[in-house]
């Protein structure tokens, strides 16, 4: 549970800082296993930059799905 709250806290701080710097945060998402629908939502909103906190295996899966 502590790792999850640490990641969540880091995510919330990042979103707040981006907002302070006037970056347009279009969408925030978290998911545990199914990538396709999450990426579909990002594509619907024409998201061009993805910031993530994931390991190399997840990165491969996420960015391969985004590239489709």
UniProtKB/TrEMBL annotation:
GO terms for cellular component: G protein-coupled receptor heterodimeric complex. The keyword Glycoprotein applies. Keywords: G-protein coupled receptor, Glycoprotein, Receptor, Transducer. This is Uncharacterized protein. The lineage of its organism: Eukaryota, Metazoa, Ecdysozoa, Arthropoda, Hexapoda. One of its GO terms (molecular function) is G protein-coupled GABA receptor activity. It comes from the Eukaryota. It comes from Nezara viridula. One of its GO terms (biological process) is gamma-aminobutyric acid signaling pathway.
């Amino acid at each position: 549970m502590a790792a999850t709250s640490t990641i969540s806290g880091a995510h919330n701080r990042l979103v707040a800082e981006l907002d302070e710097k006037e970056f347009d945060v279009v969408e925030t998402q978290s998911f545990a296993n199914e990538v396709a629908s999450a990426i579909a939502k990002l594509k619907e909103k024409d998201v061009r930059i993805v910031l993530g906190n994931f390991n190399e295996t997840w990165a491969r899966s996420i960015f391969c799905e985004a590239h489709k």
